Amino acid sequence: MANVLILGAGYAGLRAAKLLAKHASQLTITIVNDHPYHYESTQLHEVAVGNKEPADITFSLRASLPDNVNLVVDTVTKIDRDQQRVELAHHDPLPYDYLINSLGFESETFGIPGAEENALPLIDIDTAVAARKHLEETLAHFSQSQDPDDLRIIVCGAGFTSIEYLGELVHRLPKLIDQYHLPADQIKIDCIEAMPKVLPMFSQDLADYAVHYLESHGVTFHTSTPITQIDPGVVHSKDTSYTAHTIIWTTGVQGSHVIADSGYAQKRNRVMVQDDLTVKDHPNEYIIGDVSAVPDPASGRLYPTTAQIAIAQADTAAHNIRAQVSGRTPSKFTFHSLGTVCSLGPTSGVAEINMLGHWKFKGVIVGPLKKLVNDRSVLELANVRTMLESN
Ligand SMILES: Cc1cc2nc3c(=O)[nH]c(=O)nc-3n(C[C@H](O)[C@H](O)[C@H](O)COP(=O)(O)OP(=O)(O)OC[C@H]3O[C@@H](n4cnc5c(N)ncnc54)[C@H](O)[C@@H]3O)c2cc1C
């Protein structure tokens, strides 16, 4: 029996475990994750503003994994590639014949001083809950302090996660204004972005739609404004400073620090994999999801890190391990993007879809489209019951 060890039960790891379990007669499968639950990281921004509870976007790993997959709840600290074993914080090291490394993403501060200490990232359930608590407590504090900065919110970055966060935030604000008796006209939301364009992955007309939608709900955009430093309550950019007591950090992600700690050749903790998703000279080591770097043959640039590509990579890695165990030739990874859906709160958004042609959508039609994408993800990773319970 070949021993397959999967690290991380996000989109990539969980999908790979479920696929391999269907053909497990020649395999022993173990998955390690630092929590006993899977969380839908594509919906963390909804928890971070309080439009959803953690229970709405998490489900039990044990309940969704097939019985023939062993689950170890622990933190991976290092991969000992020479000994082919993985070191854990609390258990004995786990050996492997085949490794699927899908440890996912962490916040990227780009070395900007103070970003880690003074801004709130959105990377897992704990950070999303912390961001919500901070937002609510800071707004509530205004009635005592009368400090205008308690009513100011800065979102750092204007990429996908920042825009989705802002969309949820402007949707939730009227309820928070009522709850804490806030002066609505004094609330100020600034979005600060180094690049000239908001939502760079979308065509200009859709990016403009998102900007106008958010501006009409009180957001001020500052593009071409690189953040140089963050002090407590202050974001600096060259000669200008912006003050706020809530600063959200959604500028980008890097891969898990375990990648660098384990001695891989990497950039921002992402490893350039071969076209079958293995690591060069290590045909039994697969790296997939946000810890991998895969060039798009069409553009030559790296694919963006998305749940969609993580799931597609899991399909290839699971297929290739089964092929290797059966003495067949592994396949090359190919990817056809189905498109991108960016929500602007629960009832609006922008989308570019690549199915039966290329389609652009904006406005209320994108709300149900996003829900469809989220439901499909839960259905693929958990089961019908979990999908119905999360609605
Ligand atoms: C707010 C937000 C919205 C997004 N929206 C979209 C979207 O609409 N569409 C899209 O395609 N993508 C979206 N993304 C990107 C998407 O979430 C990621 O690309 C995706 O989660 C990557 O999947 P993964 O399986 O590689 O890693 P992850 O989902 O990060 O999973 C990694 C898993 O490993 C576990 N883990 C991490 N470190 C350790 C350790 N040391 N030991 C043990 N376990 C560990 C984690 O707890 C987690 O369960 C969004 C991201 C964010 C933050």
From TrEMBL:
Superkingdom in the source lineage: Bacteria
Which stretches make up the FAD/NAD(P)-binding domain?
3-314
**Would the keyword Oxidoreductase turn up in this protein's UniProt record?**
yes
Give any Pfam family that matches: Pyr_redox_2
Keywords, in A-Z order: FAD, Flavoprotein, Oxidoreductase
Q: Which cofactor does it need?
A: FAD
Q: Give the family from UniProt.
A: Belongs to the NADH dehydrogenase family.
- What is the designated name of this protein? NAD(P)/FAD-dependent oxidoreductase
Question: Which species is this UniProt entry from?
Answer: Schleiferilactobacillus harbinensis
